Amino acid sequence: MKHLSVTQRHSGYVLLLATLFVGAIASIVLTSVLLLGTNSSLVHFSVEQGAKALAAAHACAEIALQTLRENPGYAGNQFYYPDSVETCEVLLIGGTGNTNRLLCVEGTTGNTVRRLEIVIKKIYPKIEISSWREVAAFSLCE
Q1: What is the model's pTM?
Q2: Nearest to 101 by CA among 135, 77, 132, 55
Q3: Most CB contacts within 10 A, which of 43, 59, 97, 125?
Q4: Distance between CA 137 and CA 59 in Å, rounded?
């Protein structure tokens, strides 16, 4: 039977410890990459939901403006898009007559909500918008 010298045994321990150390670092790096990928997917999903909700709100606003032009007494309602999870709602149409009207719409996709406040300068003969802005919470529509 062959006996290993003390230096050969030490180099075996060093190699074993180095392998364990490199393996631990590789595991940490791999775990970090996987977690970053998961978070990136969640952020992408959230951004996509927000974009869909905003598109629903803009579409709703356009429909409401056209309906308001056809019927100045239009008070708003909720729209559901066929074959889609998006909804939008015309929450408030303020003012009366041809000038100084207020339109508040909300688009929803899943749990994501986007809101628009639209100040209409006049409806006839051509719709003129004073401001069209996205808001986190309604300020003019309360």
Answers
A1: 0.72
A2: 132
A3: 59
A4: 19
CA 15/CA 2 separation, integer angstroms? 21
81 within 8 A of 117, measured Cβ to Cβ: no
Q: Give me the residue label for tokens 């898009």.
A: 81
State the pLDDT confidence band at 40, using cuts at 50, 70 and 90: confident
The mean pLDDT value of the chain amounts to 85
Map the chain to HEC letters: CCCCCHHHHHHHHHHHHHHHHHHHHHHHHHHHHHHHHHHHHHHHHHHHHHHHHHHHHHHHHHHHHHHHHHCCCCCCCEEECCCCCEEEEEEEEECCCCEEEEEEEEEEECCEEEEEEEEEEECCCCCEEEEEEEECCCCCCC
131: left (phi over 0), alpha (psi -120 to 50) or beta: beta
> Domains along the chain?
6-135 (3.30.1300)
Across residues 106-130, what is the average pLDDT? 93
